[in-house]
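Deliverable D2.4 — example input (structure tokens):
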């Protein structure tokens, strides 16, 4: 199994600070236009509501990073098959799953996972 880092604790901390008023909506709802576009067009729906505005169309976008990925480095990927294909052709790379609300621009890293031949089960 690929090794996974879950960022649920960091997410909770950000949301706690937001509810306490330490962070403003501008601080937490700052998705870059590129990220918003990726969320809209290639992201996948996830079963969660936005923790900030309550919108029901929270989206997940996955980005892959790794020196060996060459032209795919830093690319947003659109489906699990693409991830598997990259995993079969490369020793190691990281995948970052970011949740994005296209309504209020809330965004947060959900998890990071390592993929590639070194992590194949
Ligand atoms: Zn929202």
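Example output (designed residues):
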């Amino acid at each position: 199994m690929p090794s996974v880092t879950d960022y649920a604790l960091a997410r909770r901390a950000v949301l706690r600070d937001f509810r306490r008023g330490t962070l403003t909506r501008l601080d937490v709802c700052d998705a870059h236009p590129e990220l918003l576009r990726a969320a809209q067009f290639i992201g996948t729906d996830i079963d969660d509501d936005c923790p900030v505005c309550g919108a029901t169309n929270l989206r997940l976008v996955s980005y892959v990073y790794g020196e060996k990925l060459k032209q795919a480095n830093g690319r947003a990927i659109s489906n699990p098959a693409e991830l598997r294909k990259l995993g079969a052709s490369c020793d190691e790379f990281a995948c970052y799953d970011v949740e994005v609300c296209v309504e209020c621009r809330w965004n947060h890293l959900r998890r990071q996972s390592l993929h590639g031949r070194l992590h194949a089960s």
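The chain has one domain: 4-119.
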